[in-house]
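Handoff note, outgoing to incoming analyst
You'll be picking up this chain. Sequence as last confirmed:
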Amino acid sequence: MPRLNVADQLVAKSKSDALVVLAVQDGEHAQVAATPALAAETREHLDACLLTLSASGAADEVIKLAGVPGVAGQVVVTGSGLAGTPTDDDAEALRRAAGAAVRALSGKAETITVAFPAGSPAQVTAVAEGALFGSYAFTSYKSNGAGGKAVAKITVLTSLAKDKAVKAGVQQAQVVADERAWAQDLVNTPPLDLYPESFAAAVKEHFAGSKVKVKILDEKALAKESCGGLIGVGRGSARPPRMVVLSYEPARAKSHLAFVGKGITFDSGGLCIKPAEGMITMKCDMAGAAAVAAATAAIAELGLPVAVTTYLCLAENLTGSDAQRPGDVLTMPNGRTVEVINTDAEGRLVMADGLALASRQEPDLLIDVATLTGAAVLSLGTRTAAVLGNVDAARDEVVAAAADAGEDLWPIPLLQHLRSGMKSLVADTKHTGARQGGMIVAALFLQDFVGEDADGSPLPWAHLDIAGPAYSTDDAYGYVGKGASGYGVRTLVQLAQSRS
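Most recent structure output, in case you need it:
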C-alpha cells in the first residue's frame, strides 16, 4: 500500500506524476468541482476540455489529459455522478471517484495528488479511503516488472490538513486499507501456495508482535473438539484442515464481538465435483476467513476498546481416496449430528464448527462471513452481499455499519418454514434442503450452531453471505478492481468502531 498524507497547498506547488480532480454534472455537461487548491486558469482549461470531449461527469468516467496549465504531470478527471458540491452524504461517491482515478493510474504513476472539494473531515477521509483502495495491485507473481510502477505516495490536498479529526480519519483509512490489502493478497494467492497450514502460518506471522494472540488447532486438536465439519471436509486433501483462533482483549472493553470466517482454500466440490469452469475462481472460497482476520488486525491496530475473538475455519475440499461421501454423518462441537448430502455444500459444515466454538465465549454479537451460496449471487448480483440473523436489531446494526463503510449489504429474512427440507432419517439434520431459497436454507443450518447466553436466550447472530462481491470477474468499477475485493473488512471495523 502507498503512504498517504494530507497537505494544505496549491496544485501548482505539488510535484507528482499525476493530479486527480473531481467532475460533477451540470445539466448535460461535466465541469470540474471547485476547490481552493486549483487555480482558476487551470479549472477553466479543464472545463473547456470536458466540453470538447462531451464528458458527462458520470460515476466511473475517467478522462486523462496532458499539457494542462499550472500542472506539471498528467491530469485525471474522474466523474462523481453528483449534481453539485459533495456533502457528507456523498462519502461513497467520493470514495469511488477517487478510487476509479487511482486505479486507472495504477502501474503508470508512483506519486499522485488528489484535489477534491472535500469540505469536512468525513469527506477528506472518504477521499483518502477511495484513493488507497484504488491503488491496490497484486503483482507477486508478475515477472520482470510486468506489473508496472506501483503507487508509492498519495497526497490529498485540503485546507483541513491540520484538523485533528482529519488526521485521525486519514490514519484509520491507512490502517484499514493496509489490512484490506492483506486480505486481498490472501485471496489472490494461488491455492498451490495457500492451503490450510500455510494460511495459518501466514496469519501467525502477520500478528507477530501485535496485541492479538494466535492459537492454531491441528488435526488432533480438531478431533478433540469434535469439529466434524472441518475434519470431514478436509478428508479428501493431503493437506489437512486447521482452525485458527485470534484473541484481542483490550483493557476495559466495552463489548465483545466474535467473528467466524469460511476458509476453504480451494473448493473442487469434493465427490460432488464442480464442472471445470466452476473451479476457476475457487481459490477465493476463503475470502470470509481473510476478511475477519484482516478486520481483527485493523481493530487491534486502531486500539478500539472492543474485545474480538475470531475463528478461521480452514480446509481444502478435494476428491482424495478418503474424501467424505454423501450419506456420511458428522458430529459437531455442540453434539449435533449432521447427514452430509452434497459435498459441494462444504462451507456451512466448517462454519458450523466455528460458530459452535465461538458460542462458548458468549459474545455480545456473533458474526460469520462466508462465500456461502450461489443463491446469494443469483438473488443480489455480484456487488451486493446478504445478511441474515436471528435478532432484527443485530442484523440492522450490521446493515448500518455496512452503509457507513460503503459496502453494499442487503437484509434477507430468516424464513423458518424452509427448514422442512432439512429433516434427516439418520441424523439430527441434513446440511442441505430445498433449492428454492437456498441462501436462507444455508443460514438456517448455521443457526442451529449458534449457542445461548447465560440466561438461555439465543446469542445475537448475523450471517454475511459474501459470495457475490468477494471476488470480481466482471469489469472493474470505482475502487474495486478485478480479483479479490476485500469485502467485509470495512463493515466489521466500522461495527467495532460504532460499539466503542
